[in-house]
Write a structure and sequence with these properties.
Layout: E1 10-16, H1 18-21, E2 31-36, E3 52-54, E4 60-64, H2 65-73, H3 77-83, E5 88-91, H4 93-100, H5 109-123, H6 132-151, H7 162-169, H8 175-190, H9 201-214
Parallel strand pairs: 2-4
Antiparallel strand pairs: 1-2, 1-5, 3-4
Protein name: Nucleotidyltransferase
Length: 216
């Protein structure tokens, strides 16, 4: 049953990961994330549509639109970065509207989630045997969060930081330097705030209602 939702009801599909960040190498996969809107009558049944679907393409993962909106309102970094991906492969009118209202999902909570996700990654790193790719993405997440806190949108493309980030990935930066960079970024994120106190839930809910009506 899940095979029917993607691509049949896909409203938005973007590329994320290293190719969206501008940090890809020759071996990088194409990571795709999407949003689908299940037909509204399916929610009237005892068995509801799935909240997410894997595939059908390799490295493809999609959320049902209501689940996606809920996670975005919680300032999930992965979800928010989908809305700012520079590589949009597929969109419908509903998908275009979702992108148009993306700032409605933002709130100061994002400062906590971006630093919190980065801290969780940091705690899983072993200073004696660092996984340098994970260390690079931990720093990248903090750079994105800092841009969000200062300018009101996450930074996805990392051209300005590409050389330094790839040096981390290659293990050419010492652990001490990585840890110092991390501390500096965390302090800067905590000290900035261009974000509203709360997201615009009314705007998001109105979008969701319109999408459900259109899918009747």
């Amino acid at each position: 049953m899940q095979d029917e939702f993607v691509p049949n009801y896909l409203i938005l599909s973007v590329v994320v990961g290293s190719r969206a960040y501008g940090l890809e190498t020759e071996d990088s996969d194409v990571d795709r994330r999407g949003v689908f809107a299940a037909p509204t009558p399916l929610f009237w049944r005892l068995v509801k549509p799935p909240t997410h679907v894997d595939g059908p393409l390799p490295e493809q993962f999609s959320w049902e639109v209501e689940r996606f909106c809920g996670l975005a309102l919680e300032a999930n970094p992965t979800i928010l970065e989908c809305l700012w991906s520079p590589i949009v492969e597929h969109t419908t009118p509903a998908g275009a509207e979702l992108l148009a209202i993306r700032r409605a999902f933002l709130s100061r909570r994002a400062q906590q989630t971006f630093t919190g996700y980065a801290d969780a990654q940091f705690r899983r790193l072993d200073p004696e045997r660092p996984r340098w790719k994970q260390a690079m993405h931990m720093i990248r997440l903090l750079l994105s969060g800092l841009h969000l806190a200062r300018h009101g949108e996450p930074l996805v493309r990392m051209e300005a930081h590409r050389d330094r980030l790839l040096a981390v990935r290659r293990g050419e930066t010492t652990w001490t330097e990585v840890e110092r960079w991390r501390r500096e970024l965390v302090a800067l994120v905590d000290g900035a705030s261009a974000l509203p106190a709360e997201p615009d839930r009314r705007c998001v809910e109105e979008f969701l209602v319109r999408t459900r009506k259109a899918a009747l």
